Amino acid sequence: MTIALDTRTDQALLPRKARRDLGREARTRLPVDAHGALAPSERDPIAVLERQAESRVPSLIALRHSRMASSAFAFYRGAAAIMADDLREVPDSGIITHLCGDAHLSNVGVFASPERSLVIDLNDFDETAPGPFEWDVKRMAASFEIAARARGFDDDTRARIVMRVVRAYGAAMRQAARTPLVELFTARLDMEDVLTGLSSELATEASERAHRIIAKSRRRDSRQAANSLAERVDGVWRFRSDPPILVPFRHIAEESGLSNDEAEQRIRDIFETYRETLPPERRRVLDRFRMVDAAMKVVGVGSVGTRAWVVLFQGNGKNDVLMLQAKEAQQSVLERPGEPSAYAHQGQRVVHGQRIMQALGDVLVGWTTGTGIDGHDRDFYVRQFRDWKGSAEPEVMEPSTMRIYAEYCGIILARAHARGGDPALISGYVGDAKEFARAILDFSVAYADRTESDHSALLAAIAEGRVEASAS
Questions:
Q1: What is the four-CA torsion angle of 220, 225, 228, 234, rounded to 10 degrees?
Q2: What is the spatial distance between Cα 250 and Cα 291, in angstroms, rounded to a whole number?
Q3: What's the confidence (pLDDT) of residue 3?
Q4: d(CA 91, CA 36)
Q5: What is the rounded distance in angstroms from the CA atom of residue 307 to the CA atom of residue 296?
Q6: Among 103-107, 152-156, 265-269, 449-453, whose mean pLDDT is lowest?
Q7: How far are the Cα atoms of 25, 61, 146 from residue 30, in angstroms, in the given order?
Q8: What does pTM read for this prediction?
Q9: 321-328 sheet: strands from edge to edge
Q10: Residue 316 above 90 pLDDT?
Q11: Which residue in 104, 263, 269, 443 has a CA-CA distance of 20 to 30 Å to 196?
């Protein structure tokens, strides 16, 4: 049985207690302790990567494999599709919310709010779609188990970290169920306030590291990106060439036999469609810039091989520059491969999920469809390339710092799920989260073992020549 909040029905208007009781009743169909189980599997993880490679840029597949091969955690970051397949093999709660789809500790980060304060929230929605709430919780918790193993933390330390994620999620969900709706949908975590509140808990080194991340994030804007990736040619910004990481569109067009005018028109058509998805007041911002160049840029780990473009816009002033990223949006891994998607446009799916789950978001996020050099139409979503974006550094975290970070990741995920579903339903099912946390810990340990095995399978496939891997 699926239980989902539909704001168009009377269920959404039931008293909080009634909705919480519905969540409690769901335990009779799937007890909370059942979430510790990981179904036995003989699936081939490399076959999933090969399936994904079929729709990606062939020349970048070896780079993706290389990045995923660098560590078990890197493999996990790129293996959202593999984990989605595994999650479908175990019974679920039936309690549906809007999912991030790739909830792991590195997909929580800082970015600029519209009011130009630095907030911390989920920041990657490539795989967003509705689904059982615990899928995101399991992926987030397992990411901490894997990251903590990479740091060499002992079993007890890792257990405390993973359980802190889940206990914080449960407590935040209980709070969300009691929070007035308008307040819930506007609640945010300001990074400066968070650090002030943690001043007595963070070690000196961790506090200094956090402030360095903040300072670095505030410098990461369109002007900094332009200085890093482009140069002025006759007073106009032009992307540098650094293949395969950064390839100017003019070079791609030339190799494909397109004239400069034809290539430029294709990009303009893509962004004119994107412009129409923005609210009228945001279009006015975009209309004050003119597009001057575009390039294909490789980003991330799991995203490598999907088409990702950076596009430069120049305003009236010398330093008035805007850089946007248009990123290909394929069908979410949460949807079964080979089955029709619930979304007509995958870029709109990403934007829709982001707007639901984030309290504050990018004011220029939108979607579009673009015709590639190969003549195929593809869906994209568009956002600012760098807008004070920054992320935590789990590879240098001390146990105490990772525990604190785990707590905030649990809070952030709970708030996002509360906006996308019914917090009373979820809270009713999770209860005080003690038993749920123990079950998710068991799952996380088992899934970390499986990830290490999958990572080894990738290394073996590379060594045997089944798949290629190249750092450049």
A1: -140
A2: 14
A3: 61
A4: 11
A5: 7
A6: 265-269
A7: 9, 40, 27
A8: 0.94
A9: 246-248, 290-297, 308-314, 321-328, 377-384, 366-371
A10: no
A11: 104
